[in-house]
Write a structure and sequence with these properties.
alpha+beta, Glutaredoxin, globular, Glutathione_S-Trfase, Thioredoxin-like_sf, Glutathione-S-Trfase_C_sf
Length: about 200
Amino acid sequence: MLTLYGDIRSGNCLKVKWLLDWLGRDYRWIEVDILTGGSRTPEFTAMNTAGQVPTLVFADGRPLAQSNAILLTLAESTSLIPVDDYDRAVMLEWLFWEQYSHEPYVAVARFQRAYLGKTAEEIEARLMERGHGALARMEARLSEPGREWLAGTRVSLADLALVAYTRVAHEGGFDLSGYPALRGWIGRVEAAFGIV
């Protein structure tokens, strides 16, 4: 059986959980409270030296970290990875971009507002500027004629990875009312994966 160590408040952890649920895989969830240092204990860092969640442990005891690496491993040979080489490359592009240009701003602003209790005035202006830049890039992509998904013509891992923090961006102070294509996409991705 698979074991998934994660914090239920984390979009990076939730996207792995959502994929496991969508795949119908049998797994055990172990809650790790990152706010109290749960991923920094000697026991946890012995398993994952980066001290981060999510961490997936396979039945043979081997651990795998980094949410998008876990997604790619679990979704191998499924419809969530496009067959077309170019569409697959575009999916990968969005996965890399998510961790470098979206999550560090949208998710960090959310964490600071929702979990550290910072006010809007206390959030670094650069976080908000770059977060809005990321959301605007997604809006532009999803506003292309006939475009429903980020990569290819059907839902992919790119959509799953990016919906995790985009759907709760408002908790970080990002008003999504000016992003109609993005809001429609969130609904489609949630429906595709049964996310409530």
